[in-house]
Write a structure and sequence with these properties.
By secondary structure, this protein is an alpha/beta fold. About 35% of the residues lie in helices and about 25% in strands. Strand 4 and strand 5 form a beta hairpin. The radius of gyration is 19 Å and the shape is globular. It binds adenosine-5'-diphosphate and magnesium ion (MG).
Amino acid sequence: MLDVRHLRHTFGAGPDAHAALDDLSFSVAAGELACVVGPSGCGKSTVLRAIAGLLAPGSGDVLLHGSPVRGVPADLAFVFQDYSRSLFPWLTVARNVEFPLRWRCARAERRDRAQRELERVGLPDVGARYPWQLSGGMQQRVAIARALATEPALLLMDEPFASVDAQTRFELEDLLRRVQRERGTTVLLVTHDIDESVYLADRVLVLTPAPARLLADLPVGLPEQRDQIATRESPAFVALRAEVARLLRTRSPGARSPSGGRSPTA
Ligand SMILES: Nc1ncnc2c1ncn2[C@@H]1O[C@H](COP(=O)(O)OP(=O)(O)O)[C@@H](O)[C@H]1O
Ligand SMILES: [Mg+2]
């Protein structure tokens, strides 16, 4: 579904040049939920922007359904960390969710679909309110509803739960896994939270410090049904989070994993 091949990108030029991506390659299969973890500033948001067609990489390719991405693909949605700046404050919640549908279907259908999406994220009664009248967690639910309204094949999420409290974060993680399973949406989610990456993902992609390369590609063999307390206590979870933490402590950019395999340092 998604193929990232040999992406390189440098911001600026000359002595101020900053290499953000260095030969970064990975792929994500249809229906998979993959998490990207890496140190702050390593290039995680940059790779999402390249996949979304918001940034033309210096070299390399992004293939979606086998075709190169040139500009923003139609069947892609993006959820950002900062919900307060991504929802439109002058539109009601229902109108926000309807917004991406305005070029796709008629008014009555848009209204029905928006209401269904809001129900799916546990907000059946807030359509007439404005985003700023809702809590941060509720606003992020609205952002997820809006992103899923168009039934995107690929959902990109950049630290979507980093600005909410711990309890809300757990609820949103479970919500995301549930709707992702129900819809079969392919999700690529960036987080700096190791536990979150292991809890959510089918696969964890670990990046090196800048410039980002793939350090390890770890399958998460945890059961489908996850529970915020029991799963996080399970030996498999604890072992995997320790492995990711060890990898993130690796400072030598030479420790490169064979593509698709476990890191040699693991
Ligand atoms: N538009 C830009 N111009 C110059 N440098 C940038 C730009 N965007 C990001 N960078 C730099 O590239 C590096 C990677 O940024 P980013 O992808 O946002 O990191 P992450 O999301 O992993 O924290 C950072 O050092 C950042 O300062
Ligand atoms: Mg970022």
